[in-house]
Amino acid sequence: RSRAEVDATLQTAKLNPAELLPAVHCLSFGPQASAGECCLLQLEPGLCAELEAGRSLVIRGEKDEQAVLCSKDKTYDMKIADTSNMLLFIPGCKTPEQLNADPASCNIIHSQIAGFSNNYWELRRCRPKLKKLRKLLMEDPYEGPSSQKDQTLTFSKYTTEDLLSLIQASEEEILHQLQVIDACKIEGYWRILEFNYEMKLLDHVTQLIDSESWSLNKVPLHTCLEELGSLEPREMIEHILLSYGRKYVDDGVVYFEMREDKICRAVAQMLLQNAVKFNLSEFQEVWQQSVPEGMTTRLDQLKGLALVDKSSRPETISLLKVEDLPEDNQERFNSLFSIREKWTEVDITPYIQDLCAEKQTVGALLTKYARSSMLNGVKVYNSRRPIS
Amino acid sequence: MVQIVIASSGTGALAQWMLVELQGEVEPRQSGSLAGSLLGDLHYTCEGIPVLIVGHHILYGKVVQLEKPFAVLVKQGGAPQPSPGEPQGHYTVTALIKTKLLFKTRPKPIITHVPKKV
């Protein structure tokens, strides 16, 4: 199009050129416009900066899973959003500010529309799907160097790269979760310790603390490695100290402040896994006697690990680990309500806390997935639908 | 698991494109593909209001800074048989879109023949 043609159109349209900026974009469809090769991805906050910094994003999913998009440290659900409008994407098209800022801008700008669409990919931040991580690592827990299992060729071992290709989560979320579950790298593979082996290691350390009369807050790494290094690999000694203690340096020496709550919790798990249910008061007695000298057991250390039944006579306690429950919200609630018909908020919170999305509260989850009622003056929650 | 990588081509800064949002559909005047055909003239008033003349219509719109920018992705031809562990698809981020011109008002028809009063 020429200037003359543009001006003629303006005249026909009865638009006054004096009220318009001098530059005009003549839009036409580019040669590949209908090919549909381009698509639009709507970017959540932060993702634009990631792309501009040259970082990439990855879409992950098994064929039967809903796809997710992962940045370096976040995971998003993906969906196609339809719009009734037509979206045209045009390279080199300028805004009025840009035209005013550049006095040399051409009179006629021939812009080619690169493509068009009436839908785009929409993202929503979601919880990373990490349950699979524990499941994979539990296929072959590490039982110690003396175990025969590790001698045989087994393919149930995973490197970081393997995990990235199997789990719908970002790399940082995966690495963080590995730390949370106390996984360790053995010969390049991520491993979870088999529980009894883990307790054996912990027992070595607590016995040593006792025999050396160390303070629970000042356990020296070096001495542990020296004294226990003949019993177990040094990396495993250090790993158990890192898992159950907080590392610090005092005057150049590395110490660990042992984590009372975590140790008491592990001892409880060891006791509870041997039977379906325990008499609560008997359990509490045995539990207190079983933990290291100087540590105090408390029932609130067992949130998300054990469930107390206050309605039975005598009161009982049984093992219920939140990590054994389903990952999907509705399935989780179904599972909890089939275990117990009515829950108080205090009892159910540890078993649904991990379901909360970025700014969601436990209360919001309960409103959505449960129905409340009063029982003996206490607010309780039950299922919205009949549980078979 | 399927892994599809979305990455920029790596050669310099990402291009900034514009989005134009129109109501309804765009169809070629004569049946045939749209490729190569003209859409119309885009003007701006001195106050910065976009004015689009498409066929026999004038559309008035507004410039909108997108709260959530878009990335324009172009699918790359995939490798015939990617090995396990390698991504099974690749999209290149061709451009970012941070601004759109939204034309929401009803198009005003351009009357080209004014009947003469008889």
From TrEMBL, chain A:
<keyword id="KW-0235">DNA replication</keyword>
<dbReference type="Pfam" id="PF09724">
    <property type="entry name" value="Dcc1"/>
</dbReference>
<dbReference type="InterPro" id="IPR019128">
    <property type="entry name" value="Dcc1"/>
</dbReference>
<comment type="similarity">
    <text>Belongs to the DCC1 family.</text>
</comment>
<dbReference type="GO" id="GO:0000775">
    <property type="term" value="C:chromosome, centromeric region"/>
</dbReference>
<dbReference type="GO" id="GO:0031390">
    <property type="term" value="C:Ctf18 RFC-like complex"/>
</dbReference>
<dbReference type="GO" id="GO:0000785">
    <property type="term" value="C:chromatin"/>
</dbReference>
<dbReference type="GO" id="GO:0006260">
    <property type="term" value="P:DNA replication"/>
</dbReference>
<protein>
    <recommendedName>
        <fullName>Sister chromatid cohesion protein DCC1</fullName>
    </recommendedName>
</protein>
<dbReference type="GO" id="GO:0034088">
    <property type="term" value="P:maintenance of mitotic sister chromatid cohesion"/>
</dbReference>
Automatic annotation (TrEMBL), chain B:
<keyword id="KW-0539">Nucleus</keyword>
<dbReference type="InterPro" id="IPR018607">
    <property type="entry name" value="Ctf8"/>
</dbReference>
<dbReference type="GO" id="GO:0031390">
    <property type="term" value="C:Ctf18 RFC-like complex"/>
</dbReference>
<dbReference type="GO" id="GO:0003677">
    <property type="term" value="F:DNA binding"/>
</dbReference>
<dbReference type="Pfam" id="PF09696">
    <property type="entry name" value="Ctf8"/>
</dbReference>
<keyword id="KW-0235">DNA replication</keyword>
<dbReference type="GO" id="GO:0007064">
    <property type="term" value="P:mitotic sister chromatid cohesion"/>
</dbReference>
<keyword id="KW-0131">Cell cycle</keyword>
<protein>
    <submittedName>
        <fullName>CTF8 protein</fullName>
    </submittedName>
</protein>
<keyword id="KW-0238">DNA-binding</keyword>
<comment type="similarity">
    <text>Belongs to the CTF8 family.</text>
</comment>
<dbReference type="GO" id="GO:0006260">
    <property type="term" value="P:DNA replication"/>
</dbReference>
